[in-house]
Fold this protein.
Amino acid sequence: MNPIQNYLVENFIFLIIVFSTYFVVSVKSSVDRDIKVRMTINMTLLLLISINAFYLGYLNDRGISSGAWVLASFFFYALRPLPMVAMIRMVDKKKAANYIPAGLNALVYLTCFSQRLQGALGMSQNLADFLAQYTCTITEWVYWIIFLFVLNMKLYKVSNKNPLGAFCFISVLMTANILDSAGIRPGILVKTYAISFLLYYLMIHVYISQQVNREKDIKLREQRLSMMLSQIQPHFLYNTLNTITALCRTNPKLAEETTVKFSKYLRENMYGVDSREVHPFSQELDHIKIYLDIEKLRFGSRLNIVYDIQSTDFDVPVLTLQPIVENAVKHGICKRLEGGTVEIKSQKIGRDHIITIIDDGEGFDPERVHLDGKKHIGIANAYERLKNTAKAQMDIESMPGFGTKVRILIPGEREKIQRLEGERREIHSIGR
C-alpha cells in the first residue's frame, strides 16, 4: 500500500471521529456559532497534527533528513501543545495568556531546528538537543498544571459541582498523554483529544437543548397566565362588581360576604399559574362553588345548582373544571329565559374517578361546533391539560334544546397523575 493508504488504514477511527464532528457541527442547532467555529478549528488542528506526525514517521523510516524533515519536526513539536490550550479555553475562554507557553515552545524549537539562530544565540548543539528532547513534554505538563488550576477555580470552587466526572475524564486524558510521550502508544493522545472534543460538543448541545426547553416551558407558563386571566371575562367582573354595589345598599352583610368570595375567586385564578400542575378535587370544587355562588346572586331562581359528590380523594389539574362549569352557565343556562339547573357529580368506579357536569340548558350540535368560527379556548385548554397531566378522558354529549353533559374519567392507581415539564400536545378545539 502507498503511504496515503497506510495513513487511512491506521487512522480510520480517528478520521471517522473528525469528520463526524464536522457533520454534527454543520447541523442546524441552538449551539452558539462561536462554539461551532472553535470545535471546527480544534478538530482541524488535530487532523493536521495527525497528518504531520504520520509524514514525519514516514521520513524517519526512510532516513530522510532534508528540509522537509526539519519543517515536519518543527510543526510536530510546535503544534503538539495546542490541543491542551483548546482544552483550557473550554473552561477559561478569555485569557490570551494561555497561549504564552505554546508560543515559547514554538520559539525554542524554531531555534533548535535553525543553525543560524543557534549560532546567533551561541547555543551549543548539546543544549539544542536537550531542549528539543524535553521542551515539548515540559510545556505539556505546564499546561496540565494550568488546566487543573483553572478547572478547580472556575468550576468546583465557584459552582460546587461534583468532580467525579471530570476526574475520570482527566485521568483518561492524562494516561493517554503519558503513553504517547513515552512512546508506548504513539498517536493515542490525538485520538483521545478528538473523542474529548466530540463529547464536549455533544454535552454542550444537550445542555443548550435543555435550556431551550426550559425557555419554552417559561413561555408556556406565560401563555397559561394569559389564558387564566382571559378566563376571568370582563363581563363577569363588571356584573359581579355591579351586584356587590347593589348589595351594599340593600344587604351590606351579604355584600361583604360576596366581596370576600370574589376576592378568593380571583386569588385562586392567579394562584393557578404557580408551580403546581394539580391539586385536590375538593379544592377545585371549592373554587367552583365560589363562582356559582356569585352567579346565583345575579340570576337568582333562574340558576339552580345540584351537587352529588361521592368521591373527593383524587387530584385534578388546577382550574380545569371551572371553565367547563362556566361554559354550562354562560352558554347553557343563561340562554334560556326560564333558566335551568347545573348538576355536578363525582363518583369512584373501580380505581377510576368519574366527574360529570350536566346542564339542562340550550345545548348545541357537536358536529357543527367547529363551524361556528369561535376558538373555544377554555374547553380546549381544559381538555389538553386533563389529557396531558392527568391522562384523563373527556366526553361531551349535547343536543340542541336538551342541554349538555360533560363526562371526565380520571384514571386511578394504574396511571397516577404526573407533572409534565416538557411535552405539550396539540389538540383540536372541543366544546362550545
User: Anything to note?
Assistant: The chain has 15 helices and seven strands.
